[in-house]
């Protein structure tokens, strides 16, 4: 295995030990670090500055914490670019339009493809792949957006991955059916007898459908 594959492997394994979709966990972590690096290291990088300006800055989701970053000067320099564009559009009374994707969203996209590709290629029998399989199938598995993207982007996906997720989503469907059925009038006794996790399965569904990154 190449060195970068080792990194993917360890990062995935670590993410699998936490609750939620492992890929959502990785993306959220990396996005945070990316913004931090961006603000500290790339504020003088012309290419980045241009992309950032054309994007009108980060999207509202990724700029939600900018005011709490340590480096006020970097936020000011990047923000001034955007403000200048906005002033132009105010003057001309023409609505400002985004011409590039938010740089963090673009980075998120790149990370998703990298890790989904890594998973799609993890159908072998090497020691690392076997370990990944074990750790991954103990995790909550991919959220619906990430599993959908995996299925639509790669033709060949290891069977252990499709079997695991097919089971996961079929089980979720069955527990949601049960939750709705037992929520009907007259079935309170049966509802009360449900396990706690089955009483809260609607929360699990909401998270599985949305994923945990924007
Ligand atoms: Zn996800
Ligand atoms: Zn974004």
For the biggest sheet, the summary is: none
- Mean pLDDT, all residues: 91
Report the order of strands and helices.
Answer: HHHHHHHHHHH
Bound ligands, named by name, code or SMILES:
zinc ion
N-to-C CA distance: 31 Å
Number of helices: 11
- Helix/strand-derived category reads mainly alpha
Spans of 5+ residues with little confidence (pLDDT < 50)? none
Beta strand %? under 5%
Q: Choose one word for the global shape.
A: globular
What fraction, in percent, of the residue positions are helical? 55-70%
The count of DSSP E runs of length 2 or more, i.e. the number of strands, is: 0
Count of discrete structural domains: 1
Radius of gyration: 22 Å
Can you describe what's shown?
The protein has 214 residues and is mainly α. The protein has one domain (3-210). Helix content is 68%, strand content 0%. The protein has helices at 3-16, 22-41, 46-55, 72-92, 103-120, 127-136, 144-153, 159-182, 188-192, 196-199, 201-210. Helix 2 packs across helix 5, helix 3 crosses helix 4 and helix 8 packs across helix 11 (201-210). It is globular, with a radius of gyration of 22 Å. The two termini are 31 Å apart. The structure holds zinc ion (2 copies). The site of one zinc ion has 7 residues, from helix 2.
């Amino acid at each position: 295995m190449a060195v970068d594959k080792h990194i993917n492997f360890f990062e995935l394994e670590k993410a699998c030990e936490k609750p939620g979709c492992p890929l959502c966990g990785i993306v959220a972590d990396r996005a945070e670090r990316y913004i931090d690096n961006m603000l500290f290291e790339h504020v003088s990088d012309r290419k980045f500055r241009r992309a950032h300006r054309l994007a009108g800055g980060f999207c509202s989701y990724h700029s939600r914490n900018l005011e709490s970053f340590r480096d006020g000067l970097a936020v000011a320099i990047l923000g001034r670019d955007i403000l200048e564009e906005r002033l132009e559009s105010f003057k001309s009374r023409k609505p400002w339009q985004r011409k590039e994707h938010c740089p963090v969203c673009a980075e998120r996209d790149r990370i998703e493809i990298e890790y989904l590709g890594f998973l799609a290629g993890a159908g072998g029998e090497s020691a690392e792949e076997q370990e990944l399989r074990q750790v991954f199938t103990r995790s909550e598995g991919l959220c619906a957006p990430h599993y959908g993207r995996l299925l639509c982007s790669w033709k060949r996906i290891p069977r252990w991955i499709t079997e695991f997720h097919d089971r996961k989503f079929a089980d979720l469907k069955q527990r949601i059916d049960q939750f709705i059925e037992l929520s009907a009038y007259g079935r309170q006794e049966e509802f009360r007898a449900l396990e706690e996790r089955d009483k809260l399965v609607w929360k699990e569904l909401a998270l599985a459908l949305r994923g945990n990154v924007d």
